Amino acid sequence: MGTLVFLAILWYFLFGKNNPNASRTVNGPKKKSNIGGLIGLVVALLILGMSSWHIALLLFVLGLPFLLIAKVISMSKKDAERAQSEEYKSIPEDFKLTQTVSKRRKILVKFNKEYDLSLTDEQIDRIVDASYFSYSWEREIYDMSRDYSHPTEWYRSDTVWLRAYLRAFPMMNITSDFEMQRRVVEDAFRQIFIELPPGDFMTIDSAIEETNKRFFTFFDETTYMIAFRYMQTKGMKLDFPNALHHKMETEAERLAREYDEKYEDIEPGVFDRAPNASGENKKDDGLRRDF
Prior knowledge:
By secondary structure, this protein is mostly helical. It is built from 14 helices and no strands. It has helices at residues 2-14, 20-23, 34-48, 51-84, 86-89, 101-114, 121-130, 135-144, 160-168, 178-195, 204-215, 221-233, 241-245, 251-262. The N and C termini lie far apart (109 Å).
């Protein structure tokens, strides 16, 4: 029995821990595994009797080298495809992320909690699965594993649009295809700005408050302006005309305005015609005398 446990542990570390279906925590269809079938055969032979144990062990020993060779060939093909990918070429050389499914999921779960995202278990599993063939999703998990000096530092990325979406929307549509995900986010932002044009509000804060109230979102000033600027790049004519034309008055400007309002009805030059001590009007020497 101890030998069987050893074989099961050996299978997990060689194949199981990097198999998304072996580490999945939500219920879903499971894919068949050749390794699992081999172990099942071992168990069946053990049940038949101790004499079958030698046959089971022999089959496993003979089959293991072929399985290892197939694994190496598969990894080599994936590495070659990875090296030729334009998406991969854009990733820095120091980019390294654990290959273990459970550890990738742990990173997502922790970040989801610490940064108040609203990812469900199913969405987390979908991102983890996608990270094994989408380098953009892989990069997202990698960035979630890093330490940040301030929460908003996480937004400093080419995928700032996605991160604002993950933070602001409690009801999200997560897809493994990264370009499709971009269109999902763009459609969500577009709907908001079509129904609530920013120009209808005096300030950004009032626009955010009304948006969160109507769409049940969690926008703050940072994520709202990320969405605002992103949709501007997509051709939407967005602006805050009321907010831009509203100007706070300085103390000097206030005093000058009050002075102008006080003397706006006085005839121009009236002070220049005031008599001097001798009763004669001052000679106009070209200098302005307002007092």
